[in-house]
Amino acid sequence: MFKWRRLFLAIIIILLVIIVQARNINVESPFRGLLGNVVNPAIFLTNKVFSSIGNIWNSYINLVNVQQENKEYKKLIDNLTLENALLSEKLSQSERLQTLLRLYRTYDFKQMPANVIGVSDGYVKNIVIDAGDIDGVEKNAPVIGFQGLVGRVSNTYATTSEVDVILNISSNVSVMNSRTRVSGIMRGDGEGRLYVDYYDRLDDVRVGDVFVTSGLGMLYPKGIRIGKVSDIVSDNTGLFQKVFIEQSEDFYKLEHVFVVKSNSK
Fold it and tell me: Could you say which of 30, 75, 143, 147 would form a disulfide bridge with 248 (CB–CB 3.0 to 4.6 Å)?
């Protein structure tokens, strides 16, 4: 009885193998006959397994190659980005130097170029430039920037100087309205703004009017731009009105300035 069961089981297995081979027409057949029916499906499945393993390995190798290529591309992009930044900085520097040259030719007084190497914290009160006694810089010498007046030299040292900017509360600059020619005294309000005090209440000052140095007081040469009127505070009972000025020069971005030299130098 046991032998019949084993024979029956063997027949069933052979039939299943034949069915598997019949349902997979792509099974390669190196063997023929009954041996082929038994062996060929095993060969087919083995090929499938090894083929899948090979595909997985090739995919891994390709992924490694892609990652390496990505690293090389990223390095190339970083280098190009750095080169672009350097070229942009050179172009910007060239434009600033051209602006300085135009500014130098604008005024008819002697000027000496200098670089800003230090700025005070908070609301700008003073800056430090890389020109000093050995360069002929004098105390109280006016300092101008790309867009207009910066301030005056407050202290000089061998190779550097401190400059009090016009935003200082203690700064007193005689200015005038370039349209109406009315004068006043400009100083900082301690909050980063400029205003003109002692300005005639009857003058027809308007928002947008440009103020320049008046030349009175003999400290600042006449005609240096200050900025435009941003607000007007009138006092109907007094003699004067207060005029707020939006300065042309951005004191937080100063890089280059000119020191005005006396005619004796």
Answer: 147
